[in-house]
Design brief:
Elements: E1 11-15, E2 28-35, E3 38-43, H1 53-59, E4 74-75, E5 79-88, E6 97-99, E7 105-107, H2 110-117, E8 125-134, H3 138-144, E9 148-152, H4 155-160, H5 166-173
Parallel strand pairs: 4-8
Antiparallel strand pairs: 1-2, 1-9, 2-3, 3-8, 5-7, 5-8, 6-7
Length: about 190
Amino acid sequence: MVSTQESLKGHYLIAMPGLQDPNFHQTVTVICEHNAEGAIGIVVNRIHTQLTCGEIFAELEIDYEPTPSTTQVHMGGPVHMGEIFMLHGPPFTWESCLMVSQTFAMSNSRDIVEAVALNRGPEAYILSLGCAGWGPGQLEAELLENAWLTCPALDDVVFRCPVENRWHEAVKRMGFDPMWLSSTSGNA
């Protein structure tokens, strides 16, 4: 079971090189909630290559203004792949807003999607389809298997670092050279 002190809410889950699960190989996931019931997070370094935000807005019959910020849709994880999750900076006044840290939150209500579509939403955001989820004790077991590195999540890596550099940058922020990480795991 997870105690309050052990919660990884507001942390990165950085895939170790040896993690071969295609859903998580070389991913950075922001953990949005972690408690005795499990964990939920958003993968922040995977992009849908054939889907744009504009297409999602059109399908949902939401008016939108085409801008560069409406071009990328993230693949947030293999759970609830048909649902929209927004990882975002302020404001934090949306109907369904779960604070992740002092600087960002996760929301998945229609009001934030409509605001983003009209360029009236948060300045910094990631729109993703799906999320990552772990049942009770599942994430803890994966951590014991050395599948992940963890550290506090920083909004500058999430919102300002190019998507293709986020894994390397998150590892570097931990003080490691990504080239030094082994693709094999074990316990000393």
